[in-house]
Each structure stands twice: as structure tokens, then as C-alpha cells.
């Protein structure tokens, strides 16, 4: 059995001196860490104190009572309808009716019973009278309403929806009013022309040379009043008998239906009337010719022209067919 092996002797190393007594103390504790940063608690934002602002002009115009709003609406409607009267010279009629209603309510002591609504009732009567006086063009009512809506929209700004609706209504009413005004003007011109024809037919022609051309123009332009107004008895009955009609209106319808070229029928070459007496002439309407060479309508017949008194005008007093 082998003896235990002993480790070899360590090499000779330099001796390490013992540490000094001060180094044997326990190490100092570490320095404390700075506290963790935390944001301050959130606080509500601070706004500057409200400043006093003067009211806008639109805010001052806003009415705060129902009575004032109704009165303003009636006044605006009356002012807007007044320029569109069918007869501007009779503006005093609706205005006098409104003022008369107001005076009557005060005389009858009904203003106390109405509790301050008497002026509004008189204004309503005025507006109704103006509506009646503008019935020829009802688009005037829409125009007045559109102006009222536009004004209301301006008072309610910045709420522009009412203003936009009023603008659209204003455009539509202006277009409609223009077309209707043109129709009314055309109808009035026709009435005036018809009145002139009636006056002209009652007076006759100022020259005997104009009687036959005037009859041709009346047939070409479908002016029955002028045609029949230039005929006197017995010429009226003779023309009706020649055309097989019961009266002058039927004779005119039969003759005007035979006009093939209305634009050129009145341009016929007419022979001059021949004087047969002191106040009598004869016009031959059986020899009519037209510049184009073709007949534009019927040969009218032979006319006897006489002078009327005291107007000293000339009409047809006798007729003979061709």
C-alpha cells in the first residue's frame, strides 16, 4: 500500500501584510436616490374673465314681443305691396280703408276691448285691401313675402338658413313677376288696341280713298270690329246676303276665311274711287291685283261710299258683289 502523497510545498511568495484596522469597518450605505419625478396634478384651464361687449346692431333690432313682431310684419307687407298696385293712381283707396278702420275703432272705443291690438287690426285690413288691389299679378305677393323672409334671415344671422331660403324665394318671385307683368302689359295693349278699333269703326275713315284699303286690312288682320264698323245699312245686310251669312259677323268670318296670304292681302293695288255725287263715291273692289301676281284673297265687291255728318267721315252705304 502506497503512502499518501503530500502536495508539494508552495512556492515562496511575498508575505501580504494585514489590512489596517480602519479598512476593517463595514462599508458605508449607498447614498439615497433622488425621488422619482411625478407631474403635478392636472388642473382645469383658466380662462380670462369675460369682457363686456356692446350689443350688435342686429341684436338691437330683434323684437322681444309678439305684438311688435306682428306690427312690423304688417307694416313691411303694406310697404312692399304698395308699389305693385294694378292702378297706382288709386293708392288712396286701400290706405284710406286702413286709416278709416283705425279711426272707427277708436271712435267706437273698441281699442280698449282689443287690448292694444286695434292698430294691428287696421293694418290687417290695409294689407287685405292691398292684396285685392294687386290681384292682376299675384307674384307681387310672393315677392313681398320673399323680401320679408330675407329681412328675417338678416335679423337671425349667423343662422343663414332663413336668409338662403329667402334669397331663393326672391329669385323665383322676381322671374314669375316679370313673366306675369309682360302678360298683363300685352293684354292691356290688346284692350287698348281694341278700344281704338271701336272708336275708329264708329268714326269711319277721314278720306274716301281709305275706305276700301281699310276693309282689306281688317280682313287680313282679323279685325271684325273695324270691318263691320265701316258698314252702314243697307250695306250691312247686302254683304251678309252676298256671303250667305245671317249678320255682319258671319259675313266677316266667311270673307276672312278665303284670305290665303294675310301678310300680302292688304297690299293690293286698289283703284281710286269715282265720285258719283256731292257726297257719294263708288270704289270697284272687283279689280284688285297684288304685286306677286297671285290672288292673296277674295275680290271684295263694288262699294258705295257716303259721307256722314257731323263727323265728316266716310263709310260704306251700299254693296254689290262681283
UniProtKB/TrEMBL annotation:
<feature type="region of interest" description="Disordered">
    <location>
        <begin position="1"/>
        <end position="57"/>
    </location>
</feature>
<feature type="transmembrane region" description="Helical">
    <location>
        <begin position="68"/>
        <end position="85"/>
    </location>
</feature>
<feature type="transmembrane region" description="Helical">
    <location>
        <begin position="117"/>
        <end position="133"/>
    </location>
</feature>
<protein>
    <submittedName>
        <fullName>Uncharacterized protein</fullName>
    </submittedName>
</protein>
<keyword id="KW-0472">Membrane</keyword>
<feature type="transmembrane region" description="Helical">
    <location>
        <begin position="91"/>
        <end position="110"/>
    </location>
</feature>
<feature type="transmembrane region" description="Helical">
    <location>
        <begin position="139"/>
        <end position="155"/>
    </location>
</feature>
<feature type="transmembrane region" description="Helical">
    <location>
        <begin position="162"/>
        <end position="179"/>
    </location>
</feature>
<feature type="compositionally biased region" description="Pro residues">
    <location>
        <begin position="1"/>
        <end position="20"/>
    </location>
</feature>
<keyword id="KW-0812">Transmembrane</keyword>
<keyword id="KW-1133">Transmembrane helix</keyword>
<feature type="compositionally biased region" description="Pro residues">
    <location>
        <begin position="27"/>
        <end position="57"/>
    </location>
</feature>
Amino acid at each position: 500500500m502506497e503512502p499518501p502523497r503530500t502536495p508539494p510545498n508552495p512556492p515562496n511568495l511575498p508575505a501580504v501584510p494585514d489590512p489596517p484596522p480602519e479598512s476593517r469597518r463595514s462599508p458605508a450605505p449607498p447614498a439615497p436616490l433622488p425621488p422619482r419625478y411625478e407631474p403635478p396634478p392636472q388642473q382645469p384651464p383658466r380662462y380670462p374673465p369675460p369682457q363686456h361687449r356692446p350689443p350688435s346692431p342686429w341684436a338691437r333690432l330683434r323684437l322681444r314681443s309678439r305684438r311688435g313682431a306682428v306690427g312690423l310684419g304688417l307694416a313691411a307687407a303694406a310697404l312692399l305691396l304698395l308699389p305693385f298696385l294694378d292702378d297706382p293712381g288709386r293708392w288712396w283707396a286701400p290706405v284710406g280703408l286702413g286709416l278709416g278702420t283705425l279711426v272707427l275703432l277708436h271712435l267706437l272705443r273698441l281699442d280698449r276691448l282689443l287690448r292694444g291690438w286695434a292698430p294691428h287690426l287696421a293694418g290687417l285690413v290695409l294689407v287685405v285691401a292691398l292684396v285685392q288691389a294687386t290681384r292682376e299679378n299675384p307674384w307681387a305677393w310672393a315677392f313681398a313675402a320673399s323680401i320679408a323672409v330675407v329681412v328675417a334671415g338678416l335679423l337671425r344671422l349667423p343662422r343663414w338658413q332663413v336668409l338662403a331660403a329667402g334669397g331663393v324665394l326672391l329669385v323665383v318671385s322676381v322671374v314669375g313677376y316679370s313673366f306675369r307683368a309682360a302678360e298683363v302689359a300685352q293684354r292691356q295693349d290688346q284692350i287698348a288696341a281694341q278700344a281704338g278699333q271701336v272708336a275708329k269703326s264708329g268714326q269711319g275713315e277721314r278720306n274716301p280713298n281709305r275706305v276700301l284699303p281699310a276693309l282689306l286690312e281688317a280682313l287680313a288682320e282679323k279685325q271684325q270690329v273695324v270691318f263691320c264698323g265701316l258698314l252702314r245699312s243697307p250695306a250691312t245686310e247686302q254683304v251678309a246676303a252676298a256671303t250667305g251669312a245671317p249678320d255682319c259677323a258671319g259675313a266677316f268670318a266667311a270673307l276672312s276665311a278665303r284670305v290665303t296670304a294675310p301678310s300680302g292681302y292688304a297690299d293690293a293695288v286698289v283703284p281710286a274711287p269715282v265720285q258719283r255725287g256731292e257726297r257719294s263715291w263708288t270704289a270697284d273692289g272687283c279689280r284688285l291685283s297684288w304685286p306677286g301676281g297671285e290672288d292673296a284673297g277674295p275680290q271684295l265687291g263694288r262699294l258705295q261710299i257716303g259721307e256722314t255728318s257731323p263727323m265728316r267721315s266716310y263709310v260704306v252705304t251700299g254693296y254689290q258683289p262681283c
